[in-house]
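Query form — protein Cytochrome b5

QUESTION: What is the three-dimensional structure of this chain?
INPUT:
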Amino acid sequence: MADTENLVPPPPAEAAPLMTPINLILISFFVVMAYLKLRPSPPVTLPKGPAPVVFKTFTPKTLLPNNGTNNQPVYLAVRGKVFDVTPGRNFYGPGGPYQNFAGRDATRGLACGSFDESMLTEDLEGPLDDLKGLGDDEMDALRGWEERFTEKYLAVGKLVPANSEEAKEAGL
Ligand SMILES: *[C@@H]1O[C@H](CO)[C@@H](O)[C@H](O)[C@H]1NC(C)=O
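ANSWER: The structure tokens for Cytochrome b5 are given below.
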């Protein structure tokens, strides 16, 4: 009998002391909660996964080196948008049937369904292709291509004319 009596906890004191272990735990808990609520929110971290894409500004001239030589990425532009078509390297990269488009503005060529060099804007320092002379069918085809590229490939930047305000702002 004496043994069991020893296990019974002592009756609670009339005025419980403030700093009981339980109170200390609760106080710490609230301090931590208050801290978590009030502290400045941490900077947004990008989700892990493929390297984040930096959206860049290109001129026809700075786009040109991205033509897939030396196993570099293959970029091409469609109506002012630059796409990374590296997954389609077999088509757009060196030796591929569309290699003329690599590192170039492919807009007119896609619209006309022609991979001929004459489809490319010759003067890389001049204005972008204004698509003059393209008919409704060609514009439809172009929209189709644009959708396809948007679905399939990553947009990595925009194409702006050399010596334009936008190019200057981007330090080009
Ligand atoms: C492709 O890019 C390389 C590297 O910048 C350049 O030397 C070469 O002239 C380009 N090729 C074409 C066809 O533009």
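ADDITIONAL NOTE: The chain has a mean pLDDT of 88.
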